[in-house]
Hints:
Rossmann fold, 5 helices, 6-stranded mixed sheet, alpha/beta, globular, about 160 residues
Amino acid sequence: MKKIIRVSWEPKQSLLSTTLCGRMDEEDIAEWKEMLQMSIDAIPDDTLFRLLANFTGVEAVNANVHAVFRMSLPHLLAQYDCRLSFLNLFPETAIELSSKRGIRCRAIANVVEDAARMGDYDYRFASEQEGFFNDLNEALQWLNKVTATKMQLQQRA
């Protein structure tokens, strides 16, 4: 499987997208984390955004890489007022939320190929702000329901 590491910020849609696919090592995850931070740094202050996290076909080379990968996004998003619900699986993980530069993540669609796991996560953890999918198009449709108007209303609150 071809290795893909991609992050993009689409300002007109208030959408941050990331895709990881293939066998990832420590250097790959470090590159991905740097790309994520650079993209978030490009988001204007006091902006609400949505995140599409597509991890279809991603595989860590070892357990350590998997652990670093698994916790990278939750720690990053906590700085933008977003606590990922899968952290409920790890009660020992205490993450404090903040709103760096007034930027807040208002919705995240998680995508992996494992339909059974995503179905379980969707049943246990899904909310108005977080969804779990094994189909990229379904994830995008769900994210598009979090409209700019709704986000603007939340921003005024």
